[in-house]
Every structure is written in structure tokens, then in C-alpha cells.
Amino acid sequence: MTTRVVTLANRNNASYEVDARRPLLEALRDHGIDLPYGCKYGGCITCAAKLTAGQVDQRRQVALNNRQVNDGYVILCVARPVTDITLEIGVECHDKLYRNPFLDPLKPHELKADIATPEEH
Amino acid sequence: MTSDCCGPGYASPAEAIRAPREKLLYTIAIYTGTGIQKPDYLATVDVDPESPTYSQVIHRLEMPGIGDELHHMGWNACSSCFDDGSMSRKYLILPGVRSNNLHIVDTASDPRAPRLHKVIDGAEIRAKADLSGPHTVHCLGSEIIISFLGDAKGEAPGGYLHLNKDFEIVGRWENSMGAIKFGYDFWYQPRHNVMVSSEWAAPNTFMPGFDLEEVGHLKYGRELHFWDFEKREPIESMYLGEDGLIPLEVKFHHDPDSTHGFCGAALSSNVIHWWKDGADKWQWEKIIDVENEPHPDWPIPVPGVMSAILVSMDDKYLYLNNWLHGDMRQYDISDPHNPVLTGQVWMGGLLGRAPVVNGVTIAGGPQMFQLSLDGRRLYVTTSLFSTWDNQFYPEIRERGGVMVMIDCDPENGGMTLNPDFIVDFGKEPNGPSRCHEARYPGGDCTSDIWL
């Protein structure tokens, strides 16, 4: 079994060894970490956490727009660790996840992947 | 409401109006998306003014798991099987929008303390019917039909799940979704062999939150659909355009002979009226247009966001909310082509007109509401949907939702906030929760359809 180490920055840097092939939500819950979740297929954002170091594979997520992805958010119910990673978990890390859509519009490249257009330079 | 001679509900809307006053009501309350790791629950609220626990939550039925996001609910039976003595209005069906689970709750054995009867697992529904994102529950006779907004992967348009009276999955109800792009609410009027359905968005679009730009990318609905109810397929769609952005709740007149119905277009903040004309053709028109309001901190005027509408049992009044503005309105729709504003109450909202109600600082605005059968008491809650709450009213995390009561005058029109009633879900034992849809044990103004 290939394993990765997950460090939870906002849980006193507690670290856990997880199976690299399993979704992080499942693997961390098996370690007894109490995490929010909803749909469990990557569509609803309830389980979002913030990745502050390392890489994950979250190609199956369809909930995040590109601004949220660029802000480091990952959808734990489908994301798998590619490297050792550091996460902030729970709603404490949701500071940038929710924004008033009228006050803070998205640019075309910040939309969800299926409708985003490449950023112009 | 059962007897030896007949089944649940009432012989007619006029009979329903004369029913005894409600003493209890049920509302769902959520922790999903709030940061509190507890199950969502069904709260029983005491609404009997003679009771020592009036205006309090007297029971909480927790769901078995976390993360459901309870939202709307519906009865297993209503006046559509009034003639069937073998049926009774006993079970409330509580779908979890995010988990896909359907919770069947027995409210009859002990109405004050409902108990869980059965859970239909969300995974089973995905596997057997390829559906996710459950919303509206209606019964017709002993059949139960539930709209789902997505397929098993959360993509639109979803479809309709058919349950039998024992809450077993029969399969998909509809024979075809035709060219329908999205699902949401629906209502039917059997004497005219018609069902009307509306459009929100795919679960994968609306569940994570609201990106305004996705409206322009046609990720949100703007059509109403008219169905051949017996053939179970759509026959005509009305393109509402800019007048009908995000058409959500649909209500027919309660009078089963009427063809008139109404839809609240949430983002346009308009009420759409439809009816069948003398040539047997369905027509629609915009009858109410809530103007956007200026806000000192906003670059553009604030839309009302009319997320719900309701028609009184006598078909005389239409009630609507403006979730972002913060007002509830009552219109006399005696002439459905020409509604007259007869009442308005402010509670919460972004415009700051009534930040405190009965001593409680309101986070959110008027959102979901339920009217008593006699049309005199309107119970209003403030949370829309966890992710959308978090975007527009982030302070709701700390404050939770509230339920208020508005006294309505069905004779002369008019509405006033009741000073003696408020249920503060910010003070719940497990921390601030958010209440949403409400229903009464004896039926209410959004439960019953007459054959």
C-alpha cells in the first residue's frame, strides 16, 4: 500500500498516514477525524478543506470554481493525496470559500472548469 | 382527520378552511454546512397559545447521519385520497438534498414526538433510478412522486422518483423528460390532466453556492413546463426569458376546477401567472415585478430573491418573500390578472429595515413560509440553503435561523408581525441551527391536491 502523510495544520499539526488511493474524507474519518460532508461524490462543497502544502488529485470534483481551486480548496470526498500534504479542515478554513456573488464577481477564468475561458495576459 | 367513512384530508378546500386550528407544526432544522457536526433534525414546535410551551421547540428527531441537508418535505397522503379509508396522513417524507436519503417519519403514533419509520438509502436511489438532489414531495392517491434535480452524478435535468404507499421504489415516474433542461418544483391539477414543473439548476451547480455568472452561462433555469399528467410527459414549455430567471415554486389554485397557477421567479423577483384560455391554450403573463433596491455597499441594486410563494386555501391571497430585501408580501389575487398589494411585513434582510424582531436579531431574511388552513397565521423561517446562506448572510452561522408568525387578515387583507411568537433556532441545545420548511399534522396550504 502506498501511503502519504496528512498534517492537519489547525488541529495542532496532528499527522496521519493514509492510503494514497483512497479519498481523504474516508481515510481521515477512519482515523477518527470528525469532518463535515454531504454528497460524497464531489458535487456539493460541504467537505471542502484548504490545502496549504503538497498536491492532491481531485479531478473528480465538480463543485469548486477556479477561484476556489486557486485559493487552495480541495474536496475531501473525492481528493486523493499525491504527495504528503498539509490541510486546514472544517468551516474555520472556509473564509474564502463563500463570497457574495453580487459584490465580488468572478472573472471569466475564475468560473468552474467547464465554462471558464483561459486568462488573458 | 380519519374516520370510518373516509381517508385523510378534507372533502374540499372549503372544508379544509373550517378544520381545527393547528396546535403543532414541524419544521426541519439543519446543521449541514454550519460547522456543527450534528445530524439535521425535525423539530416539533408548539403553536398552541394555551400551552405553557407555546412558541418553543418541544421535540427534536435527529436523522441517523450527518450531511443530509433536509430542505422540503411532504406527506404520504393528502386530500387526494379522502375517499380511501385505508389511507391516513401518517408519514412525513424528509429528503436530504445532499445525501439523497429519504427519511420516512411517523408523525401519527405520537404527534408531539415523531419517530423514524424507515430510511431509503440515497445510494439505492442512485443505483435503481439514476437520480440525486431530491426536492418536492407530492402524493396523489396512494402514490408518492418526488422531484430530483439531478442524475446520479448530479447533472441536470434529473427526473421523478415514484414510491408506492409502502415506500418502496417503483422506479422513475415520468415516461419522458422531453427537452426539459432542469427540474425543481411541481404541482398538478388532475381535473385538467396537467402538471407544471419549474427549473432551478443541476445539483452540481446550486449545491456549492451561487455564482451569478452561471446564470448567463445558462446553468440556471428560465422555463416552465406543462405536462400531460396521465401520459407522464411534458407537452409544452414556456420560455420566460429575463422575466423568469430561476423560476422556483409553482402553485395551482386549490380549487381543483381552476386552471390558474403561479410561479415565483427568484432572481427576476417576479410572479408569473398561467391559465388556460377560451381556446384551450395555456397562456402566461408577469403579474408582479418586485423592483431591485439600491444598497449603499452594492455596485448594483439588490434583487428581492423571491424564493417561495404560497396561495391561501380560499385562493384569494398570494404570499411571497424577498429573501435579500427582507419583506413578506400579501397580494389579493381575486382577479389573478391584476393582483393588489394588501400587506407587507419586514423582518431581517440586507436593506436594514427590520434587523430585530421580537428581541431577536435576524440573520437572513424571510424565506420559507406556511399558512394555516384558515388563512390567519403565516409561519415564516429565514434560511434558504446552507451554502447560499453562507454567501449572503454569513452571520447566520452564529445566530442560526428563526421562525416568526405573521397575523393575516383574510377578510380585509393586511398582515402584522405577531409580538408573542418567535422561535430562536440560534439557542438550540447543540448550537445554532437553521429552520426551513414547516408543515402541520392536519395538512396545510401546500400539502393537498383534490381529484
TrEMBL record, chain A:
<dbReference type="InterPro" id="IPR001041">
    <property type="entry name" value="2Fe-2S_ferredoxin-type"/>
</dbReference>
<dbReference type="Pfam" id="PF00111">
    <property type="entry name" value="Fer2"/>
</dbReference>
<protein>
    <submittedName>
        <fullName>2Fe-2S iron-sulfur cluster-binding protein</fullName>
    </submittedName>
</protein>
<dbReference type="InterPro" id="IPR036010">
    <property type="entry name" value="2Fe-2S_ferredoxin-like_sf"/>
</dbReference>
<keyword id="KW-0249">Electron transport</keyword>
<keyword id="KW-0408">Iron</keyword>
<dbReference type="InterPro" id="IPR012675">
    <property type="entry name" value="Beta-grasp_dom_sf"/>
</dbReference>
<keyword id="KW-0411">Iron-sulfur</keyword>
<feature type="domain" description="2Fe-2S ferredoxin-type">
    <location>
        <begin position="4"/>
        <end position="93"/>
    </location>
</feature>
<keyword id="KW-0813">Transport</keyword>
<keyword id="KW-0479">Metal-binding</keyword>
<keyword id="KW-0001">2Fe-2S</keyword>
<comment type="similarity">
    <text>Belongs to the 2Fe2S plant-type ferredoxin family.</text>
</comment>
From TrEMBL, chain B:
<dbReference type="Pfam" id="PF05694">
    <property type="entry name" value="SBP56"/>
</dbReference>
<comment type="similarity">
    <text>Belongs to the selenium-binding protein family.</text>
</comment>
<dbReference type="InterPro" id="IPR008826">
    <property type="entry name" value="Se-bd"/>
</dbReference>
<protein>
    <submittedName>
        <fullName>Selenium-binding family protein</fullName>
    </submittedName>
</protein>
